[in-house]
Amino acid sequence: MQTEVFLAGFGGQGVMFAGQVLSYAAMDAGKEVTWIPSYGPEMRGGTANCTVVIADEEIGSPLVQNPPAAIIMNLPSLDKYESMVKPGGVLIVNSSMVDRDVARNDITWVSVPCNDIAEEAGDKRMANIVATGALLALLPVLSLDDIEAALNAHMPGRHKNLLPKNVDALKRGAEYAKQHVHKAQ
Amino acid sequence: MAVTIVNPQNLVYARPKGFTDTPTHYCPGCTHGTAHRLVAEVLEEMNILDRTIGVAPVGCAVFAYNYIDVDFVEAAHGRAPAMATGIKRVLPDRVVFSYQGDGDLASIGMAETVHAAARGENITIIFINNAIYGMTGGQMAPTTLPGMKTTSSPNGRDVETQGYPIRVSEMLATLDGAGYIVRRSLHDPKNIRLAKKAIRTAFETQVHGLGFSMVELLSTCNTGWGVTPVESLTWLEEHMIPAFPLGDYKIAPAVAALKF
Amino acid sequence: MAREMWKGNEAIAEAAVRAGLEAYFGYPITPQNEVLEYLSHRMPELGRAFVQAESEPAVINMVYGAACTGARVMTSSSSPGISLMQEGLSYIAGTEVPMVLVNVMRGGPGLGNIAPSQGDYNQICKGGGHGDYHPIVLAPASIQEAVDLMPVAFELAHKYLNICTILIDGSIGQMMEPIQLPEMQPVVRKEYGWAVSGAKGRERHILTSIYLDVPTEEKTNLRLLGRWREAQANEIRYKEYFLDDAEYVVIGFGTAGRIALSAVRAARAQGHKVGLFRPISVNPFPYKRVEELCKQAKSFLVVEMNTGQMLKDVQAAVRNRIPMRFYGRLGGVMPFPDEFIQEIQEMIKNPGKPDDDPADLWYQRMMAR
User: For residue B88, which residues of chain C lie inside 8 Å, CB to CB?
Assistant: First the structure.
């Protein structure tokens, strides 16, 4: 069993961290995992992306051409990567930063106003966590409890007080995705 | 009948303990032998021969380790200050010095020299400035004087196309990491005595952990210059000293306060 | 011990520390900066030597100096920086002192880019610097493997008085994987019969790579060769996957090798009898094992992130016994498993002839795209 998740957005939207949270949760759940970023000058304020591979056995390639799951946090990334998602796969789009629907009907997708939901949960910087919750609602590779445990175990001590808010953001994202999902046809 | 004149009562001059028995390969008249001897004497007087590591350069002094009797490594051209840094950082309680010529130190190895000084690397450099590349056959060096003829400036160094000599001591003295930077000359006994004192101070600077130390020694290359040994000493005094004034370019207060 | 997520570059740095690293010298270059950054706090914290030098030539000569003391010493860099170090590497090889080098390869030649590449295989394995010398080169394919090889690298460097290189690329340096780090080994300062430390109570030591007496230099070259032959006999490392019944064998090192694992699994799922051979010691290269595999395989597929540099070593072992196919991506392009799967399918459909030139056929295919 192997699943790949691709995450993309502007630098600062927390796509790297969201990928790491998934990785930590996968590791703690006893799975093999790789996290690989795009790196270099594009990290300095431009778009950023990373790929997470979660598997039950030794992982080969840390990159895949057509990931079965993606979180897209901004419009340039949607334009660039929409066609990359594997048919039958899952795509989460942050509609707070993207003013169009997904153009494909062969994938399961949902537009989630991640920034707005994060703000309701208490901090707009949690948009990445909202998106992660939305993804896991449609792709049960890990449970929300796994993510909560991973946040608790690996968040730096000074941010621990933000844990309840993050868990709330995660759940709100999952709930929203369940209600607004467009199933693949 | 042979008369033994070397007995303790009349012995005034002997091979220092820091010297091997190997005769040097230097040209007759060359001042490398003098500089080597001063280093060996100082290491012996400070009783640090058995905890000193030398770094030999590429140039005429490439075989310095055949004469100065301490642990030695042989560096790549110009890289002696970097190599000395590597040794000193692993063995900070040992005494580490490099012995370099002008091509090695001020041309190919200028970056290593400047940055070792800037880091305040606690090493000592003995810098032989004879205004020429000796070993390779007398080519123009970064310290060759304007108008000076060499095998690669046959009409004399033309500053319009070949630039100006570099005054290394003056330059390094501007760096905060430098503890002791002086220029001395080897052209007569008085100056040789002053040079030895400077070499002693440089090693004392290192032993006391007071930062980078360098003694620039104006030296002769009668072969490369195409003159006799005696003429070379006069030429040094008349031409090199005006271009490279002798003096103390940086003496950190803590170095000035040293008593030894 | 629990697994922890580590970035490749930082994991390598910590693994070196735990292997008894006494001195590190480095210079910034992407994609290996995290090694330098990590050790800039870790080494001083342990009272060990760390210097950010002014250039790679300075770095490698600091390493040279420290290596002459017998200390466990290392540097890391990426392709253009490694080129700048070649002079010092040749001197270190010629002086017969031990060091560990980490090359996090990037796209080239020239300034190139910072993307993952395997374009330095020839430079690293076949010498790079001037003169006859043979550095030991280990090419891990994962962070765990890299971490496990760090203590091995120091042991080999000291055993064979040679350079031991850990050869990875930007993807392994930049990615994160869960790993188990080795236990912290104490720093052991030994008095070696060759190292410089001040000649207290012993004959002095002189370390040099100059032998103006030509016969002595020849003897020195033979001594280097002797140690190298010993390494060739004893230090072959590789990993095999699904080879028991394999009729087709994919061969790749490092990242290309691990990407091939995904492709081989997919081909197996399609019912093809395909296996993977992944050299870990790329110098010395496992020629003998490759030769043995010729007996069971109908064809080989060699995959690399270069124009076929390791291919030449595989060919030297195969000697036209069986047909071979080559597939490479260049200049920092990281291949996807799908590309390798397609190559495997093509190989099975048409294995070709033993005399075919795989690099030439691959070039024709690339240009026809």
Answer: 65
